[in-house]
Design goal:
The complex is a heterodimer of chains A (56) and B (246). Helices cover 79% and strands 0% of the residues of chain A. By secondary structure, chain A is mostly helical. Chain B has a domain at 57-180 and 215-234. Classes of the chains: A mainly alpha (56), B mainly alpha (246).
Chain lengths: 56, 246
């Protein structure tokens, strides 16, 4: 397959698909880190959600 | 178990915590095995030669671009009819994933079209309707970001999603209704698949694997959306001086 005249097209298709896929996965992972860190900071500052305050 | 069993976001987050990693691992493993079979076991096509290998990523991406939109339609019905608490969370989380599969479908199709058709792009009904699908995804994402209040954004996006659903049968049947350069269906068609078994099973394996990965990404994105809404509420509480533990 490496010697196929269209190898460049096949490689580019999988490479770009992998890049887009990695981009989405990374975006979700970074989003999760960002939001959990921000929530932790607020909780450390003593802020509680209404449902959690009711439990306390 | 009903659709309301996991209506409680806290319960849903616990569910995601346990299932996310196994779902992603199973999906990745099946995709990897399918791609190995596609490259090492499936033969080259008698007309397309090795370029047929692009099909193993292009076709599942095309199916998933429509499946993601189909799930968004169901979520939008959940938002407008039942006001299910997780319905608009689901729709919002799915939109970027669906857009990603659609762009993968368009790019890989273009990379296949250049050597096989002699052109990167033609404005035929199938290619154009898939491009319209991508633009609808972009429009829905823009609409979500245009509203401050997620509940209002959810209802507006749900209406737009339902209107855009008309494009799904157009994509599916475009190759039958119009004269297109794009070939007609060769897997999901009346009379069964016309594709040879040696190529069909790796294709289906990749498609199943990518579907499971898509479900995993959707669960992860839904978790982010729930936490982002929680963060927004807590910031509003902090700004109003409410919410401090006593």
């Amino acid at each position: 397959m490496l010697t196929d005249p269209h190898f460049g097209f096949i490689f580019a298709a999988y490479f770009i698909a992998a890049l887009i896929f990695l981009g989405v996965s990374l975006w979700i992972w970074i989003g999760h880190r960002h939001v959990t860190r921000a929530l932790d900071e607020l909780e450390q500052a003593g802020l509680r959600r209404r449902s959690e305050r009711e439990k306390e | 178990m009903s659709i309301f069993t996991y209506a409680n976001p806290q319960r849903f987050l616990r569910f995601v915590h346990y299932v996310l990693l196994p779902v992603l691992l199973i999906g990745a493993m099946l995709s990897a095995v399918g791609l190995y079979a596609a490259f090492a076991l499936a033969p080259a096509d008698y007309q397309q030669g090795e370029t047929v290998r692009i099909m193993y990523i292009h076709v599942p991406a095309a199916w998933l671009s429509m499946a993601c939109y189909g799930l968004m339609v169901l979520s939008s019905i959940g938002t407008l009819v039942w006001r299910h608490p997780l319905a608009d969370v689901s729709a919002r989380a799915m939109a970027p994933i669906g857009a990603a599969f659609t762009i993968i479908c368009l790019v890989t199709g273009s990379l296949w079209g250049r050597p096989m058709w002699g052109t990167w792009w033609v404005w035929d009904a199938r290619l154009t309707s898939v491009l319209v699908l991508f633009l609808i995804y972009c429009g829905i994402l823009a609409l979500w970001n245009a509203f401050e209040d997620p509940a209002r954004a959810g209802r507006a996006a749900a209406v737009m999603t339902l209107v855009g659903a008309i494009n799904l049968p157009i994509i599916k049947f475009s190759v039958d209704w119009w004269n297109t350069l794009h070939q007609s269906a060769s897997v999901f068609r009346m009379g069964g698949p016309t594709i040879d078994k040696s190529m069909l099973w790796p294709l289906l394996l990749v498609a199943i694997g990518m579907t499971i990965v898509m479900i995993g990404l959707h669960l992860a994105a839904m978790r982010n959306e729930i936490l982002a809404r929680r963060l927004r509420t807590m910031r509003v509480m902090a700004a109003s001086g409410e919410g401090h533990a006593h």
